[in-house]
Specification:
Elements lengths: L2 H4 L4 E4 L6 H10 L1 H4 L9 H11 L5 E7 L5 E12 L3 E9 L8 H8 L1
Antiparallel strand pairs: 1-2, 2-3, 3-4
């Protein structure tokens, strides 16, 4: 039996919106110790506003990784400096919400990007 047939879908991707700000900021504050020194995730309203502005650019994309059954924010995936030339490329970054670390949610979310 293939892995795809054995695996239930526990996550889905959502484009971040302004309404997600409060939840996002709280989750990133909770996860600061885990993220430091590798990621400086938006942890206040001004940083969230800048993040949302950046995602409006044609060469940036962001996705919230949410748990299917309760919509819990489990992590974030970003594609930065996307180029659409002869060689398409982007920088990938991702980070998990601390309480969901080591549960496979980010692995599942990354497969959907």
């Amino acid at each position: 039996m293939s892995e795809a047939l054995k695996t239930e879908v526990r996550t889905y991707l959502q484009a971040p919106g302004i309404a997600d700000g409060r939840e996002f900021i709280a989750a990133m504050r909770e996860s600061r110790a885990l993220h430091h020194p590798w990621v400086s995730a938006p942890c206040d309203p001004e940083a969230w506003r800048r993040y949302m502005e950046r995602l409006d650019r044609d060469n940036e994309a962001g996705f919230l990784v949410r748990r299917t059954w309760d919509r819990a924010l489990t992590g974030v995936v970003n594609l930065n400096i996307i180029t659409y030339e002869a060689l398409c490329s982007a920088y990938l970054s991702y980070y998990v919400v601390q309480r969901f670390a080591e549960r496979g949610y980010m692995k599942e979310g990354l497969r959907q990007v």
